[in-house]
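Supplementary Data S3. Sequence and structure tokens for construct A.
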Amino acid sequence: MMPYMLPCRRRETNLLDNLAFLFAIHEINQDPRILPNITLGYNIFENYYNARITYDAMADLLSTGNANIPNYRCGRQNDLLAVLEGADSELSVHISNMLGIYKIPQVSYSFVSHDRNDKTQFPFFYRMLPKDEYQYTGIVKLLLHFRWTWVSLFAPENDNGEKFLSALTPILASNDICVAVSQRFPELIVPDLSMTLDSALPWKEVNVFVYYAEIRSFYNGIYLINIILKLFIQPIDGKVWITTALWDLTSTLSDSKFLFQHSHWFFSFLIQTKYIPKHDNFKLSHVAPYLKKAFHCFFKKHVLSGKERERCEQKLPLDMLAPALSQDNYNAYRSIHALAHALNAAYSSRFKRVMLVEGSKVGLQKLQAWQFHHFLRSFGSYNTSLDGVYLDGDGELSANFDILNWVVWPNTSVASQRIGSLERQAFPDKSFSVDEDAAMWLRGLNRPLPPSRCTRSCPPGYVKVIQEGKPLCCYACALCPEGTISAQEDANHCTECSEDQYPNKDQDQCVPKIITFLSFNKYLGILLASVAIYLTFTTGFILGIFIKYKETPIVKANNRDLSYILLISLLLSFLSSFLFIGRPRRATCLLRQTAFSIIFSVAVSSVLAKTITVVLAFLATKPGNKVRRWLGKSLANTIVISCSSVQVVICTIWLGMSPPFPESDMHSQPREIILQCNEGSVAMFYTVLGYMGFLAAICFTVAFLARKLPGAFNEAKLITFSMLVFCSVWVSFVPTYLSTKGKYMVAVQVFSILASSAGLLGCIFIPKCYIIILRPDLNTKEHLTTKIK
């Protein structure tokens, strides 16, 4: 059985596609795994880009007799199952019009119009080249990789060119790539260049040209662009071309060497294959000897049709033609193999006896062309041998691309290098890749890739600012606002650092914040701790003196037990300052404010009890006064216990309702993370301070009124002065505390504790220690009871 296929060549005098076609047929017929016991036949027709010749070839192909009479069966049987063609869009439509009558598959391996993708108009058409849309994605990614954002677009004046511009322009805009020039040119006729210098000015800043290439218009477009560059743009060296051409550009660039006499870069995409050709400027003259040996061609005139055709007969094996294969005509080679695999699947299914195709059952009878469509549409389900190239469910080719860079050397030789790939089935972030080892080849040419931008890049730390009336790519740069950064060039917006970081000086990266608290290892913490230790030992020393001299009149005067309570309270208050120094913990946060407030309440209550005792003692000396019975330990103890209990109740309510807890303050200081104790309830915190202030105010008032009572040693004077110091410290504490941040707030409170406690200790007990140690002659009952005149 001999199914026939028809390739229509896509370029005049191009025999390489035919050689690839013949070599693929030869391989398939020699492979026992593909179409066993079936010989794959073929007919080859040349259309010369002529519609009349194309129709004549199609009529001859569809006719079974010697004359070109379709639908007239005479003589030989027509085994045509598919037509493989490489015609342009216009001729491809003519072919479809005739093949559509017979539902014969039409497989194209050439550039055709986007309209051919419409399956309602062309249901029997199959492309062996991928859709342009996926290639556009690769072009955009290539531009972004090399940071080319100022480009020009060129396309022929036809439907394909219009759709190229309308499809690619919004994709470029969505990726912040601007089109400086969008030029269209006639397909075949060289236009009259009426461009002025003003209209050519946008070209000067553009170094990258994206060119939509078609077979017939390829040279015309390049010629036009080079003429414009030569006339209006100086210098013109170092221009970058990115073309949509999916064929091997070796012969194309070599034949148009006069257009590339200056240094140019040329990028294109090719379908990935396992076959790697050698680009050695292979020309048809190299193939001619093979053709003469392998084929015997002669002219034969048919009697009925009167038409003379060149007929060729194969004489030698086609293995010797393998060197003629290049990656360009490998598309035709691959297309034949794709059809052979689909045909093999069709004939393999015949042995299953039953197969549902469009609602009818097919047994062992001969395969019809209209039944072949089912296998072409399902080609991807069983194709595993064509380099990852397959037809999807819509009959469209799905394939990966290699990205090639082409260079035309001064000696007109052409070299290419694979620099990357575009993988259709890969993850989106890995679909595009540039081989850095291959990119070394680019740098080895001693010609750095030129930039193509409307403006200089904004460095890190700056943000792009769109200028009114200018394209998006022609932006200005502005420094990021305070507290934000931009870590990359040409940032669209500035970002804030995370809570535990802050911007560096250049605002191009985030730096970890410093963790800070009132530490024992820092100078401020060491100073406060040292003062607290010194005052603690001083208080202990004074307490020891009072215990040693407890039987002396000055110690016994004004209630010795109150003095002990006051000294112990002051000792504990100095020690409580250590709760404020060091890393805040849950336990220290719960204890620091409550312990401090209760201890200070006991101390102030003791001073208040001393003051009231002084006043009552003076009143008791008057004859007939009944105050004498209030004097004694019971009154003093009652004052201390009752006043302190109120503070204990307030602290208990505080801990029960909203206790303090440790927290990290990320926002108070821009470069610091402040570890501190959150007071839980600010109202309760100031209630505690307010109650201590209330006790101190009462104590100060009573002591001030009793300061002039007669006596050689009137303790009310000492208490007045000590409470004056105490109140001054805590009155200044509130505004100072509110105006500081972080560890300095804690330091202010520790200083207030130490200063107020030291004021009470110094003003009340230092004069007594002076008399006890240095003036024992004054430590007598007679002296203490002597009235001052």
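Construct B, processed identically:
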Amino acid sequence: MKFGKEFVSQMVAEWEEAYMDYNSLKATLKHISRFRELNESAAMASTPKGSLKRRLTLYRAFSGLTGGQRGSPRKSEDEVILVRAEEGEGSEGSYQTMFLKPSEEGEEQDLVFFKKLDREFNKVNNFYKKMVKEMVEEAEELSKQMNALIALRIKIDKVGFRNVASNGSSNSISLSDHIYNARPGHSRVHMDVIHEIELSSESHLENGTGNYEKQTTPDEGFRPASVEILDRVKINMTTLDSPISTIKGLLSSSKPGQSFSRKELTKVEEQMSIALKEFYHKLRLLKSYSFLNLLAFSKIMKKYDKVSSRNASKDYLKMVDSSYVGSSDEVNRLMERVEHAFIKHFANGNHRKGMNTLRPTAKKERHRITFLLGLFTGCSIALIVALIILIHARNILYSEGRTKYMDNIFPLYSLFGYLVLHMIMYSANVYFWRRYKINYSFIFGFKEGTELGYREVFLLSSGLAVLSLAAVLSNLDMEMDQRTKSFSAFTELVPLGLVIVLLLITFCPFNIIYKSSRFFLIRCAFHCICAPLYKVNLPENFLADQLTSQVQAYRSLEFYVCYYFWGNFKTRSNECLQSDLYKAFYLIVAIIPFWIRCLQCFRRLLEEKNAMHGLNGLKYISTIVALVMRTTNEFHRGMVWQILAATSSSIATIVNTYWDVVIDWGLLRRNSKNPWLREKLSVPNKSVYFAAMVLNVVLRLAWMQSVLGIREAPFLHRTALTALVACLEILRRGIWNFFRLENEHLNNVGNYRAFKSVPLPFNYEDEEEITVT
């Protein structure tokens, strides 16, 4: 792989604009190269015919075999550039390169190149300096948090020590002490390991004179953290987000009293472990950023030397090495200190365990997944072909039992069709998110190495498709047994058995079939069901949006209950639609997902005080009203209900379409450099965005089928037409997913957000809530 592609592939997506623009500099070098080739061609054309054709560089003055050595008297004659450092405002400085060959032809192109090069280098250097400063500040905060954690451990465990002064602060040693005592402007941050009360593994201690003395008692040399820290901190109860804490927060106007328990200690340790892991991840990304950019500057300068036949890279790279991004070692020191602290405090001194936690291994693509994916996909296609042949051979479309089958069996299997289609759309989303470098795993907050790729998702969907199609084949009988006037009980129970198997796999506690992803889905679904008692994060928000596109799936589940418990599945008959209770739940189950999103919006409105969340909640209320009107119109046909359904649905469609395109997708920006689109686009082909907007509008108009009273279509039964409309909504949601996450990713890119916001457990007095961002 060429370096340019490798450079782009290894970028931190959210920092893309802060990296060196390697392609732009490379394009400038191509212009210089073409200009020189044209000059050489012109020079060759002016030479007498028959003379030797040689490169112009072969006619340059010979610099001597020892001209490149250090201290050569001809060095000043061969110098091409001079790099000067200029002080800027605040902590930002800049470097400016002077080109020392003004008399040579093609000087303008060289000046343009070095001007761009300086601009890119200053951008990289200043960004790196800014990020390191933030890391140091964060290290200070983590140090204070760790000191409080250690003091809490001492208090909970009730550890006592001899020879410890009553004033614990005199014996307290913390990470932050070394940072606070560092001289201003000093490049070295002495981030010493957080000292906790523990037995020393060494048998000798260093005294004040630098000599070592024998340790005489077990308690000598202990330097405990100060328990008095706990008098100045409070445990951040807002991080313990749960329905109980939410209700308590609403009912109680006063802050909870200070109580230190082992349960709180466990929670605090868990939070600090997560915070240190996230901090270490930031340091790793920053180190990678520095390495990649330094390598890019080295590569581009070597290309310049090759194109221009000069030796400018040595002087420029010498400046790069002496700059902050090239010489600062603070990130490495911080990484070492975090490793030592994490191993000591959260891995019980086990180096391998601690490093495996801090540096999770990259997920490997397995050939087994590819093989099973191909197998299940092939089986699905074969089963579809078999179904088509069977339907044609038995003339099922015109069979007397067709209506019974479509009214009773088809709604049962349509549930699996909705799920399979949604999973296929999600796998397509993952594929395109990866292709266009949209960091979906970071946005959703997946644990590193556990996120499912498009192969895994498609494997699950194809596996479910095989089970569903095989089940359809098992009871594709149209006519009843004339002797018993019934169908086989075993085959009629196949759909119910398939639902039970699917539920058992979903809630299986064993580490099979992507347990971490299943439990992540279950947790998010539970938070959605309990809305607004849980804090609304993007995964819950996104999942609730998916649920709003599966209305017919919930109605299919309702039909399962009615058909198997109140109907007669042996004779394929039911009276569900004649039951008022069934009709009531038919409406309620459709409203639930929209009501969940409405409650999530109002929760965010209370927490974030952002009026847009209130408007979003009103949008879902308008959708609920439209859904009630349409459902009522289905059961009570009449001109009044039809007008109400059409009016409410039209209003909801206009509001939802505007929100999708403008708010969720960030499009229709009139003054953008891409007219009616965003300033930044992940997909190069702009027509894709316009096509998506048009499709969104068209697919949202699927409700017109029910309002206009279109009950059946040629060769389509009523239930089949309903299923088709439901599939169109799932397709619309799949398209919406890509652009929704693309807009979220680009917002993160615009703010250089490449890290999760991790709440810290302790609040110091007179300080606001502390989070690592």
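The chain has two domains: 1-41+79-359, 367-394+402-772. The first helix runs from residue 3 to 9.
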